[in-house]
Amino acid sequence: MNISTLNKQGVLIVRVEGELDMHVADEFRHTVDDALDSCGAKHMLLNLKGVTFIDSSGLGVILGRYKKISALGGKMNAANVRPQVARIFECSGLLRIIRLCASESEALESL
Amino acid sequence: MATKNRVKMLFPSNSENVGIARIVAAAFAAQVDLTLSDLEEIKVAVSEAVSNAVIHGYGDNAGEIEFEMTLDTDSLEFIVTDSGKGIADIALARQPSYSSDPERMGLGFVFMESFMDRLIVESEVGRGTTVKMLKKYCIDQKH
What we know:
- The complex is a heterodimer of chains A (about 110) and B (about 140).
- Chain A has about 110 residues and is an alpha/beta fold.
- Chain A is about 45% helix and about 30% strand.
- Chain A contains 4 helices and 5 strands, in the order ββαβαβαβα.
- In chain A, strands 1-2-3-4-5 form a 5-stranded mixed beta sheet.
- Chain A is globular.
């Protein structure tokens, strides 16, 4: 997994590539939590363009970050989600709280 | 049901092996004509079963995981066995949102159940857990 973060107008943009499972869940959590703590962004945008696989461990670590930002009134959305990954999101019920957008710019506008 | 092929793997409960197991499962499943979405479902279900063995079966104590894949004339079977701590209440563990950890969704068994055609969980506390998953395939799909 490759992960990078960028703070843009109060939104933490998290760009992820690879497979999101239990093997990388801790690294994902640490990287995102450190970035959130240091930049103080309110909202989060996940760019999952390069994510080819996700399971419940990957969803769990995303849900954990959602809980963190929503406790402070923030919102989360996700952009460029591949169909197979979107389907797992849908099965998990996470789409009730995380909005999927076609692109990063669309996702930024909706926050 | 005649067995057409069988592959058995044994690996330590490292998190790296979760990804290896699901890739091997997809390669094994690709022997029959499945849709991409079927293959994706198999990968997720296997990933959940092996992750459970690593996280809940063994936790901090490393152990061995056995993964057996069987191809029959109308189905694929995936069996994940650990010799870890076992599950005290299987019915409770299989319920949605049941999780021992707030960072987890408690969806492991839910995904295995919804993405496979049959899920059997056998467990004994102190002895380990065996998860058997069956995916049926339609022979007519073959071109």
